[in-house]
Amino acid sequence: xxxxxxxxxxxxxxxxxxxxxxxxxxxxxxxxxxxxxxxxxxxxxxxxxxxxxxxxxxxxxxxxxxxxxxxxxxxxxxxxxxxxxxxxx
Length: 89
Ligand SMILES: [Zn+2]
Description:
By secondary structure, the chain is mainly α. Helices cover 66% and strands 0% of the residues. It has helices at 14-20, 22-26, 32-42, 46-65, 72-87. Zinc ion is lined by residues 14-15, 18, 41, 45, 47-48.
């Protein structure tokens, strides 16, 4: 399930890197180097942090309810709430 992470991306693509590997990060499937890189980016990028938080919340909800995946409506609502919370920055 975890694919090798390409390291040739430019600095401007850090957000993309985070978004692509969010689930690996949450599942602790990343190498320590990639996890460190992810953390470093999340420390100063609130959109990515919001995205990560939303994914984590959804993941926990799904795990608790034993459904295969979160309903799109729920997913959208969590995303919207987190976006509002972090946009005032
Ligand atoms: Zn970012």
